[in-house]
Design brief:
The protein is globular. Strand 6 and strand 7 form a beta hairpin. It contains six helices and seven strands; from the N terminus they run H-H-E-H-E-H-E-E-H-E-H-E-E. By secondary structure, it is an alpha/beta fold. Helices cover 28% and strands 30% of the residues. The longest helix is centred in the middle third of the chain and has 14 residues. The structure holds S-adenosylmethionine. S-adenosylmethionine binds next to helix 3.
Length: 200
């Protein structure tokens, strides 16, 4: 399975690599989301636990079972319930017309996987459903504050417009912002922020 060993090793320490507080683009926009929520590349659970704490049911999918075990522990200590599924997103088939929202935070994938997955993500949203995505942009390549060192896995607004042709963007921007997420993401970073809706 793609990258599973790499991520299991990254998550093998007791500490949470990206911390236990949610991504701020997600927390700033939680009011736009409805359930059930599908969270792609959920990792160690900080975002799913936050979503659940807002009363939304959430399924966190990730290729790392070590990460998702930590996610379940985090949920238990926060007193919320989350669902998890160990899966390679290259072969993941979300149910059609099921989700009120899909969340993708730092879920960097090669374009070959995105080509297969993103049309399924569009289909998995209910009418009126929302996609919320933050990822490092191509401008992050020269920075050492986090993110993959492969331009194919980094995003731009233009890539997102092309890859989600059936969603209507509400917010689409490339900005630089200070990111402070555990020891994994730290410092000024170039990111793409995207919120789009499946029109009724
Ligand atoms: C940078 S971490 C982000 C984790 C989480 N979204 C967060 O913000 O804390 C990237 C995550 O993508 C997952 N991942 C990478 N490739 C994957 C794939 N092909 N299928 C499923 N998960 C994958 C890794 O296991 C890791 O948890």
């Amino acid at each position: 399975m793609y990258d599973q060993k790499f991520w299991n090793e990254r998550y093998s320490a007791n500490e949470y690599l990206y911390g236990i507080t949610p991504n701020t683009f997600l927390s700033d926009n939680i009011g736009l989301l409805s359930g059930p929520v599908l969270s792609l590349s959920e990792g160690e659970g900080r975002n799913a636990v936050f979503i659940a704490s807002h009363g939304l049911s959430v399924l966190g999918v990730d290729c790392s079972e070590v990460g998702l075990e930590k996610a379940k522990s985090l949920a238990e200590s926060a007193g919320v319930v989350i669902e998890t599924e160990v899966a390679d997103l290259a072969d993941f088939h979300p149910e059609e017309n099921k989700y009120g929202s899909v969340v993708s935070i730092s879920a960097h994938l090669p374009s070959a996987i995105r080509r297969k997955l993103y049309p399924l993500v569009e289909k998995s949203l209910k009418q009126g459903g929302t996609l919320l995505l933050e990822a490092y942009s191509e401008n992050q390549l020269s920075k050492d504050t986090g993110g993959p060192k492969d331009v194919d896995m980094l995003m731009t607004v233009s890539k997102l417009h092309q890859e989600f042709p059936n969603l209507k963007p509400i917010l689409a921007r490339e900005i630089e912002r200070e990111v402070s997420e555990g020891e994994g993401h730290t410092g000024m970073a170039a990111v793409v922020q995207y919120i789009a809706r499946k029109e009724a």
